[in-house]
Specification:
The complex is a heterodimer.
Chain A (H helix, E strand, L loop, with lengths): L8 H72 L1 H29 L3 H27 L2 H84 L14 H37 L1
Helix pairs in contact in A: 1-2, 1-4, 2-3, 3-4, 4-5
Chain B lengths: L1 H12 L3 H13 L11 H11 L6 H12 L3
Helix pairs in contact in B: 1-2, 1-4, 2-3, 3-4
Chain lengths: 278, 72
């Protein structure tokens, strides 16, 4: 038996302390893991939902701005002429179209599901159609080209709205995810805390029984013997110092009992002799 | 042999071991301590099993008796 496995009180205290430290470390680790999971979940949710929502709103803003500028261009062409009208309104519209293309590509990478990804891919396609139809209007400005442009604008507008809805849904889902993760983490933390408290109570009770139980018994033995009651049995509860102390008490009580019997016998003999002489 | 018996009985009777054994020799062996030998162990063990119960539990008395018997 090596130093640490001997059943002494000191080793029991050492192992008890080690157990408490291990329990606290485990609970801390679990708590830390729960917090980390919550943080990562919230981070992911914010990154995806929040950003996608922002990008989809930006697309809509740029779409409305592009269409407004094209409308202004078409109205200005008869008054200012094509060149001046282009300078005034169309360059800005091109900028807006380019922004929509960039944002749609970004949204495709951010979208968390295939369904949402498809919506933003549609925006990317329809903005190209929009651009091509706009080029045709600028080149020819015929009723047919204007009609085609208006159809393309309508399609882009619809797709941008779908994208906005997808972004909003992502944001709502992110909030729901964060709430769900938060609730789960809170329940987990409560569970771990209660479990830890119960473990600590049980460990404390076992530990006190291991030490205080034998001490209480020996105290009871000493009290009984000191009041003259020698008929009490001394029990050995454990194989440690308290067990050895119980053995010592047992020997002392046995010795006292023997000496008392001897004294009683001597008193009897003395009584008989005195009776005989009388 | 007496020294071995005293050492054994001390683990059960403490300071009363010597007095207890001398009493047992007187009652059951009718001999002095110096005369006690391996041949006496059976009789002594039987006597201890009966007398020790007055001072300790039956289990301990039987245990002491068996250990005395083993000294033969």
């Amino acid at each position: 038996m090596n130093f640490l496995t001997k059943p002494t009180i000191a080793n029991k205290l050492r192992w008890g302390a080690a157990g408490v430290i291990a329990l606290v470390a485990t609970l801390s680790g679990i708590g830390g893991y729960a917090v980390s999971t919550l943080r990562n979940g919230a981070f992911d949710a914010t990154r995806v939902g929040g950003r996608l929502n922002a990008v989809s709103l930006e697309i809509q803003v740029h779409n409305l701005e592009a269409q407004r500028r094209v409308k202004n261009y078409l109205e200005a062409v008869p008054k200012l002429g094509p060149e001046k009208a282009r300078e005034e309104f169309l360059d800005e519209a091109q900028f807006e179209i380019h922004e929509i293309e960039t944002l749609a590509a970004k949204a495709v990478t951010l979208a968390p599901t295939a369904e949402k990804r498809a919506k933003f891919e549609k925006i990317a396609v329809s903005v190209k159609t929009f651009e091509q139809s706009l080029d045709a209007v600028v080149a020819a400005n015929s009723p047919a080209s204007v009609e085609a442009y208006e159809a393309a604008a309508e399609q882009l507008h619809e797709n941008a709205e779908d994208g906005e809805v997808a972004g909003r849904e992502s944001s709502q889902k992110s909030l729901q995810d964060i709430t769900r993760i938060g609730d789960r983490s809170m329940a987990f933390q409560w569970g771990i805390s209660i479990f830890g408290l119960l473990c600590a109570m049980v460990a404390g009770k076992l530990f006190s029984m291991a030490i205080l139980g034998p001490v209480e018994h020996l105290k009871e033995v000493a009290e009984n013997v000191s009041l003259g009651n020698l008929d009490i049995e001394v029990r050995r509860f454990s194989n440690d110092e308290l067990g050895d102390l119980a053995d010592s008490f047992s020997r002392m009580v046995t010795a006292v009992k023997f000496f008392r019997f001897e004294v009683e016998e001597l008193q009897e003999e003395a009584g008989l002799k005195a009776g005989g002489k009388a | 042999m007496h020294a071995k018996l005293v050492a054994l009985c001390k683990t059960y009777l403490g300071p009363a071991a010597e007095s207890f054994l001398e009493r047992m020799y007187k009652i059951y062996l009718k001999a002095e301590a110096s005369a006690v030998g391996p041949a006496h162990m059976k009789e002594l063990a039987e006597g201890v099993a009966v007398s020790a119960i007055r001072m300790m539990t039956a289990d301990k008395a039987n245990e002491l008796s068996k250990k005395i018997m083993a000294l033969r």
